[in-house]
Structures are given as C-alpha cells and as structure tokens.
Write a structure and sequence with these properties.
The protein has a domain of 253 residues. The chain has 20 helices and 6 strands. β3 and β4 form a beta hairpin. α8 crosses α9.
Length: 457
C-alpha cells in the first residue's frame, strides 16, 4: 500500500512540475536550471541536497508568490533526477496580522503547488508572538502579542503617530522578531532565499546596522554574514523599543551555529524568474492590494495601513465637518476587513484615535484640543486630568477614563506626559520614526501645537 501511495504522489508531483514548466518562458526555464545548480552548490554537492534546509519568508505580493512557485519547481525537478531533494520551510508573515483574504490567497497557492501533504515542505505562519502551523482559517487577532500592542501605543504617544512612521521601522523590527522566533523553533535551516533585490537588501542592512549601533546592541561579530544573528539583534531591539522607559540591553553576541545562516543570492536571475508572465495564471492571480506591494513592504497589510491613514485624516478634519471616527472604508471591497488594524492589535478605535492626537505628550500640550474635538464632556475635568498625569491626587473616575481612552497604564501615561527618556533612547526612537515601511526617509514631523492652553494643576 505504501508503494502504491508513493507512486501516486510521485505522479502528482510530476504533473505539478510539468504544469509549472509549461507556463514558464524559455528564459525562465534556463534561469530555473541555474537556480538548481546554485542550490546544489550551496548544499555542498548533490550528495548533501537531501539534508539541505531552505527558508523562505512569504509575503502577500506577486514576487513572493512567483518565488515560491520557482522554488517548488526546483525542489520537484531535483526530486525527479535524484532520490532526495532539499527541504523547504515557508514562513507566512503579514503584519500586524494577516486578513482572511490574504490567508485564502496563500492557501490557493499552496494547494496549486501541492505543498500541504509533502513531507519535504513545512508551512508555518506568524501568529502573534508565536510561530504556528499555517491555517487559512486563523483569526487575525493579537493573541499572545501584548508587546506589539503596547509598543504601537507608546511609540505613537511618545514619538510620532503618523501612519507611515507607526508602520515603518517598527514593522521591520516585528518581522525580524518573528524570524527570530521561527529560527529558534526550527534551528536547522541552512539558508534563506528572498525575492528582495540587492539594492533594497543593502538598504535594510544599512538601516539595521545603524539602528543597532545607535542602541548599542551590535557587538563586533553580531551581524557577520548571518541572518539569524541579525534577526536576534533586531528582535532584542524590538523588545527595547517596546519598553522605552527601561535601559537598553547589553550588546548582542554571535550565536553558536556551526555555519552561518546565509542568503542565497539570485539577483541575476530575479528579472527572468519573477517577471510578468503566464506563471501568474497557474497561481490564480487576483488584483488584491498586497499583491502589488514593493518587496520591502510585502509583509505589511496594506489595508491596515490605509485604514490608519483614513483615521488620521478624519482626526485632522475640522470639527464641524468631521465624520464619526470609524475604521471602515467607504470602499465596499474593504468592508469585510473593517477595523483590521484595531483588531490585530487588540485595541479599541477610540484608543487608536487618542494615539493619533497624542494629547498627553509634551506635558499635555494638546490635551485641551483633543477634548474639544472628541470628548467635549470631559473639558470640565481638564485640571484633574493634568493632576492625574502629574501623579497628584484626583478622582478615580478621571484615572479610569484616561486609562480606558488611551489603552495605556497610568505609569506609562505619566512617562509620556513628562517625556522622561534617556537621550540615547530618545534619539533612537526619533530615528526609527524617520523611516516608512520601505525604509525611505520621511519628512520631519511638524512641531507640536502649543496654542492649546494647559490647565493649572
């Protein structure tokens, strides 16, 4: 019975390979053979390919989908020529959390490539602070991810609440932390293949080195040609940024791997392998927003970012014409994913709106304006709000209102109010806020509004 099953599976895999090859151009098939040779060399030779483990971090864009199809074709091609082939580990990541449509898209790709029942393939996804087996029916919530929730709110209140700053450098730190978790749970990966071209990889590496140097976390050998060491250091920085009131940790030390986890460079093959063509038809291409993302933003939910931009625009609108704050897009296609950002981080919409106003920063300089705009019934309690933020006595109802409206604890809010951060942490957070999700420089934020009066304590 086992032999019959193996023969049947071999026939199915051969059909999958033939279908993939039939939808590739001649240039793509030539590049595929070059990729196979490169993988064999990276493994140490054909005799070691059966123990070679390859990691790919799967985004929701077209390039990621095409790369996965090409890697699957390489895996099956080697299997037809030799008794064994390399192991492929796929880590699906979409921050802050993958929506149902994106998970279903990945599910279609995995089914098309017949990856679920192949013991040579391991399919996983980032779910909060854990790496779990891939499931297309997972709920996009922040289960077990309190750090990401507090990090988002504290970063917005303390530093910069612009959407591109909130989901820029911070998102790359979250992604690095997810890769760190994945490698810790499955430490035997030998190499990583990515669809990110060399120029953007260099931009990411330069940003990582600069951020770790500013934080004092990069030891002399921490980032030496090893993706795992970089992920560990950036994950440590992610924790430090999530708790900005504490001291920065000690420098990272190099991990004790027998060989570094390296990136297999295929830049010279990317244009041919991942270009526009019939390969998209095999994968069932659809015009979802994430599919057209640039490589460095392929792991961020574009609808969540769009919803945050929408909410920020409503906050800036004049009070007289401002609509009710809702994380719901007027676009009917986005209705099923409404409030995705708030749900992913476990936040209330009022807490997100509060963060975008940043009313408690700079000793409450914008608190009166925030109350006039969104909570006019609390204007009478303005002096008590300042007293609560200063650590002085005030009614418990006032304290409860501040905590519920902001989503932060009183201790955290008082740190925001007083701005008590060491110069090193302040400089680090300010520099992290200068990059968007593609790690491009943002314009410096406008100076805080000082027209709103502060109530006397």
């Amino acid at each position: 019975m086992s032999n019959v099953h193996d023969q049947a599976m071999h026939f199915i895999y051969q059909q999958v390979l033939e279908r993939l090859l039939s939808h590739m151009t001649k240039a793509q098939r030539v590049s595929l053979q070059l990729l196979i040779q490169r993988l064999l060399v990276a493994a140490g030779g054909p005799e070691y390919i059966g123990t070679f483990r390859l990691l790919v971090v799967q985004g929701a864009d077209r390039r990621s989908a095409r790369l996965l199809a090409v890697l699957r074709a390489a895996q099956l091609s080697i299997a037809l020529r030799a008794p064994v082939t390399f192991k492929l580990r796929v880590l699906v990541s979409c921050l802050p959390a993958a929506g149902g449509a994106q998970l279903e898209q990945h599910e279609r790709h995995f089914n098309t490539l017949f990856m679920h029942d192949d013991p040579r393939v391991q399919l996983e996804m980032v779910d909060g602070a854990a790496v779990v087996p891939f499931c297309s029916r997972a709920d996009a919530t922040a289960r077990g991810w309190p750090l990401a929730r507090e990090a988002l709110l504290l970063f917005g209140h303390l530093v910069d609440a612009r959407p591109d700053a909130l989901l820029g450098s911070r998102t790359h730190l979250e992604l690095a932390d997810a890769i760190r978790l994945a490698l810790a749970a499955y430490p035997s990966a030998d190499a990583l293949v990515t669809a990110v071209p060399a120029g953007q990889r260099r931009r990411f590496a330069a940003w990582a080195r600069r951020s770790l140097r500013q934080a004092g976390l990069a030891g002399p050998d921490a980032l030496h040609q090893c993706v795992e060491n970089m992920a560990n250091c950036l994950g440590q920085l992610h924790v430090a940024v999530g708790f900005p009131g504490g001291a920065l940790a000690t420098p990272c030390s190099a991990q004790s791997r027998a060989l570094p986890l390296r990136v297999i460079v295929i830049d010279d093959l990317l244009a041919q392998l991942l270009g526009e063509g019939e390969l998209d038809q095999v994968l069932g291409g659809r015009s979802e927003p994430a599919r057209h993302a640039t490589p460095l933003s392929a792991f961020v939910d574009p609808l969540a970012l769009a919803q945050l931009h929408e909410l920020a625009a409503r906050c800036k609108a004049p009070v007289a014409v401002r609509q009710a704050l809702r994380l719901v897009s007027p676009n009917a296609e986005m209705q099923p994913q409404q409030a995705r950002l708030a749900k992913a981080y476990g936040l209330e919409q009022t807490q997100l709106a509060c963060m975008l106003y940043r009313p408690f920063a700079d000793q409450g300089a914008g608190l009166e304006h925030f109350l006039q705009s969104r909570h006019a019934d609390m204007l009478v309690a303005l002096p008590y709000l300042h007293r609560a933020l200063q650590g002085k006595s005030c009614p418990d109802a006032v304290k409860d209102w501040i905590v519920n409206t902001s989503g932060l604890t009183l201790a955290q809010l008082r740190m925001v109010y007083k701005g008590r951060l060491g110069p090193g942490m302040r400089h680090l957070l300010a520099n992290l806020a200068r990059r968007d999700v593609q790690l491009r420089l943002l314009e410096r934020k406008a100076a805080p509004c000082t027209s709103a009066r502060k109530a006397s304590p």
